[in-house]
Design brief:
- The N and C termini lie far apart (177 Å).
- A 5-stranded mixed beta sheet has the order 2-9-8-4-5, with no helix packed on it. Strands 1-3-7-6 form a 4-stranded antiparallel beta sheet, with no helix packed on it.
- The protein is built from 2 helices and 9 strands.
- The longest helix is centred in the C-terminal third of the chain and has 31 residues.
- The chain is rod-shaped and about 135 Å long.
- The protein is an alpha+beta fold.
- Among the domains are: 98 residues, Immunoglobulin-like, CATH 2.60.40.1220; 35 residues.
């Protein structure tokens, strides 16, 4: 009898624990997307007022300014569109719609679930605007809400550091009369010639002095 009471008590505890886990499981699950504008894989021909993502539960915007939320619209060239501002209301996050020329686009998103965890991902769609639809200019960097994009950096042409070949004689030409090396060489040659002449004269003089006069 005592054994059966213990078994019943253990079973009751297990059932109670299971009930608590089951009750808390939905609250700790991440939000999941239930609808988007535009839809994943959709083809847009007219620009909506806003792009939206709606989840199954309220989104958690702790700061009230959606700092932890991302809603980037990017084309195949890597250019960003829109102002970077995200509005959060209940289970929906949204941003003002803006697109460039026709082509494929990607929405890169991030939101904070009701359980405090961030969820991120991507959606793809095609923009095939009808006549008269507005076309925006993209930016190379992701826009920041409230910050005006600066002008695109321009690269000024620079002069080629490699000098063009010149037909004028350079200072490395062979020494000549007009160069310092040429003048020095001329002086050395002149001095050498003078010394040689003196030596020859001395030798001749000695030779003459050594010759005896003829006997009468």
């Amino acid at each position: 009898m005592i054994r059966s009471k213990k078994v019943a008590a253990v079973a009751a505890l297990l059932l109670a624990a299971g009930g608590v886990f089951a009750a808390s499981a939905p609250a700790s699950a991440h939000n999941f997307i239930v609808s988007t504008t535009p839809g994943d894989g959709a083809v847009l021909t007219t620009l909506p007022e806003r792009f939206e993502i709606t989840t199954n539960d309220a989104l958690l915007d702790v700061t009230g300014n959606a700092n932890a939320f991302v809603f980037d619209i990017i084309d195949t060239a890597g250019l960003y569109y829109g102002d970077g501002c995200v509005a959060v209301a209940g289970a929906t996050m949204a941003t003002d719609a803006a697109l460039g020329t026709a082509g494929d686009y990607t929405i890169a998103y991030q939101f904070v679930s009701a359980d405090g965890h961030s969820v991120s991902g991507e959606l793809a769609f095609t923009w095939d605007p009808a006549a008269g639809e507005p076309v925006s200019t993209g930016s190379a960097a992701a826009p920041e809400c409230g910050v005006e994009p600066g002008p695109e950096p321009t690269v000024e042409p620079t002069e080629d550091p490699t000098a063009e070949p010149s037909t004028e004689p350079s200072s490395s030409a062979e020494p000549g009369a007009g160069s310092p090396q040429g003048g020095l060489l001329d002086e050395l040659l002149w001095v050498g010639g003078a010394v040689a002449a003196v030596v020859v004269a001395v030798v001749l003089a000695l030779a003459l002095l050594r010759r005896r006069p003829p006997v009468e």
